């Protein structure tokens, strides 16, 4: 009932009946023509306004089945600007993280983003009078772990099974199965199969 009422209040919002009823405590701002789809088994905590969905006009956000939007350690903010697209793969895990899309931001299956981390597919401001704001799609592959207090910048692709160490700044693509660390993040080692890790 609570989820159905939410759907009635926000045209463009589709919440699967098997998603957590705690989603009723989230904040939803959907511009004209925005679409937000929340799949079955998506869970969050019972904490008012700790989870925020901010969608501009014509934005499209898909939250894959079994995704955990965990707000215990900090707010989870999904900002998808006008006409942009954001996709969270099945069973992905955002733990007090902030994702922002002006073009396209895609997380794969079981991709994790840790507390205090942020992913931006744009700079958010013009650089100077001659150079307008930079924007380019970001892709975070299947089974990737972005640890705490990291920032991933525009245009980055992180290959599957890669790990980004705490407090890293990712400015360039990360090959699959690679550990990167630092600011800017550089390769430091190999990562094995992460498809069953917890
Ligand atoms: C400062 C900024 C705009 C520069 O963008 P840019 O001019 O497109 O920079 P580039 O991606 O071409 O990177 C140039 C080099 O600097 C490095 N670099 C870029 N930003 C860096 C940063 N913040 N710290 C350290 N190194 C950085 C890149 O790795 C690259 O090095 P390389 O050529 O050896 O690979 C961008 O890095 C940035 O910080 N964007 C802001 C994102 C943000 O936080 N927005 C929130 C809203 S306020």
Helix segment tally: 1
Termini separation: 33 Å
Give a count of the beta strands, DSSP E runs of length 2 or more: 22
Radius of gyration: 16 Å
The top-level CATH class is: Mainly Beta
Q: How much is the average pLDDT?
A: 97
The CATH fourth-level homologous superfamily: Hexapeptide repeat proteins
Structure overview:
4% of the residues lie in helices and 36% in strands. The chain has 198 residues and is mainly beta. The protein has a single domain (2-190), classed as Hexapeptide repeat proteins (UDP N-Acetylglucosamine Acyltransferase, domain 1), CATH 2.160.10. An eight-stranded mixed beta sheet has the order 4-7-10-13-16-19-21-22, with no helix packed on it. Strand 21 (178-181) and strand 22 form a beta hairpin.
Keywords:
UDP N-Acetylglucosamine Acyltransferase, domain 1, 22 strands, globular, 198 residues, seven-stranded parallel beta sheet, eight-stranded mixed beta sheet, 1 helix
Topology:
Blueprint: H1 2-9, E1 13-15, E2 27-30, E3 35-38, E4 43-44, E5 51-55, E6 60-63, E7 68-70, E8 76-80, E9 85-88, E10 93-95, E11 98-101, E12 104-107, E13 112-113, E14 118-120, E15 138-140, E16 145-146, E17 151-152, E18 157-158, E19 163-164, E20 169-170, E21 178-181, E22 186-190
Parallel strand pairs: 1-3, 2-5, 3-6, 4-7, 5-8, 6-9, 7-10, 8-11, 9-12, 10-13, 11-14, 12-15, 13-16, 14-17, 15-18, 16-19, 17-20, 19-21
Antiparallel strand pairs: 21-22
The structure holds coenzyme A (COA).
The site of coenzyme A (COA) has 12 residues, from loops.
Task: Give a quick precis of the structure.
By secondary structure, the chain is mostly beta strands. The chain has one helix at residues 2-9; strands spanning 13-15, 27-30, 35-38, 43-44, 51-55, 60-63, 68-70, 76-80, 85-88, 93-95, 98-101, 104-107, 112-113, 118-120, 138-140, 145-146, 151-152, 157-158, 163-164, 169-170, 178-181, 186-190. The mean pLDDT is 97.
